[in-house]
Amino acid sequence: MSADERFRAAVEVVLAHEGGLSEHPNDPGGVTHWGISLTWLQRLGLAEGDIDGDGDVDADDVRALPRERAIELYRRYWWEPLRLSEVRDLGVATKILDLAVNMGSGTAVRLLQQALRVAGEDVAVDGILGSQTLGAVNRVNPALLLELYRVQAARYYHQLVDRRPELVVFERGWLRRALA
């Protein structure tokens, strides 16, 4: 499987979890399409975030976001910076991408590092997927790592809802995603 085919396979899982357009009033990211939220798109600024070309970045830009453009954004802002092409097991790389898109890269990597520590790897829990963490990811049995990572993600979502009860409406979906 080529590097592009690996990325495409991983991003299809993310897109399946994210679904299409969502305008839930409790979503802290605002309007979301293909997993790209208004809040995140606004951080990109006009050059990349003004999808409809009207001079601002607003909910209309999220609604107008084409699927292929969302895929490009996943590659540029998640897959490549996280060095996921260097993760040998596609299932592990996919899970990292999926959680990073949903909860943020730093949080997803910290949970990965916690899972690695449970697996016996001596890695820093710093939210950076650097050479030390990548080496550990590629040393640990992928099935074991995925199981430990799923547990860490589920625990994170439970704690998030405990801290922010208004997000309980998303908990069931988040847990399905964490345990997938």
Structure description:
The chain is mostly helical. The chain has two domains: 80 residues, no CATH class; 95 residues, Up-down Bundle (Chitosanase, subunit A, domain 1). The chain is built from ten helices and three strands, in the order αβββααααααααα. The protein has a three-stranded antiparallel sheet with strand order 1-2-3. A hairpin with a 2-residue loop joins β2 and β3. α6 packs across α7 and α6 runs parallel beside α9. The chain starts with a helix and ends with a helix. The model has no long low-confidence stretch (mean pLDDT 94).
Q: Strands across the major sheet, in which order?
A: 1-2-3
CATH-defined fold name of the largest domain: Chitosanase, subunit A, domain 1
Tell me the β content.
under 5%
The CATH homologous superfamily of the largest domain is named: Chitosanase, subunit A, domain 1
Helix content: 55-70%
- State Rg: 16 Å
Average of the residue pLDDT scores? 94
- Give the CATH architecture of the largest domain: Up-down Bundle
The SS-based structural class is mainly alpha
Q: N-to-C terminal Cα separation, in Å?
A: 22 Å
Q: What's the CATH class label of the largest domain?
A: Mainly Alpha
Task: Tell me the domain tally.
Answer: 2
Q: Give the total of beta strands.
A: 3
Poorly predicted runs are none
Shape: globular
Number of helices, counting only DSSP H or I runs of 4 residues or more:
10
Q: Strand count, sense and closure of the main sheet? A: 3 strands, antiparallel
The arrangement of helices and strands along the chain is HEEEHHHHHHHHH
